[in-house]
């Protein structure tokens, strides 16, 4: 297939063409994209030797498919999987079938109403026999707060605070 052919096929929702475009960028990083199209939903499985980075790769897929504008795709499901594992380590999905003009209307409607602002506090308790170091706690707390802040799009989370009895990790927007 030539470049214009692949791009045109991808814009029409052709799963093989979309996978080909994704793999041009992902293969050099040791990641393979497998793409299937079912009932107006596109399923993208990202597979590599290590569990693929959810934040970076989900953003890559969202941006790429939004720019591509495949007319027949309404919903996208993205899975991150380690090679030779039976089940994905993570999954995330988003709607692609909403035109931008409607997104602006929805955003304006939500901003005109009084949004609910939430603060989330989590207390981790660990067994001292497991030797949970402050560095381990910081890593876990940062991962939890990043996951919460990145996955809550319908609710405005103002602050995530995680404590383990002696240390507190706080992230604010």
Model description:
Helices cover 39% and strands 29% of the residues. Mean pLDDT is 75; it is low at 99-115. With 173 residues, the protein is an alpha/beta fold. A hairpin with a 7-residue loop joins strand 3 and strand 4 (90-95). The N and C termini lie far apart (45 Å). It has five helices and seven strands; from the N terminus they run ααββαββαβαββ. The protein has a four-stranded mixed β-sheet. The protein has a three-stranded mixed β-sheet with strand order 5-6-7, with helices on one face. It is elongated, with a radius of gyration of 20 Å. The chain has helices at residues 3-11, 15-26, 54-68, 100-112, 134-151, and strands at 31-38, 41-48, 75-82, 90-95, 117-123, 156-163, 168-172. Helix 1 (3-11) crosses helix 2.
Report a brief summary of the structure.
This protein has helices at 3-11, 15-26, 54-68, 100-112, 134-151; strands at residues 31-38, 41-48, 75-82, 90-95, 117-123, 156-163, 168-172.
List the defining traits of the structure above.
single chain, 173 residues, alpha/beta, four-stranded mixed beta sheet, three-stranded mixed beta sheet, 5 helices, 39% helix, elongated
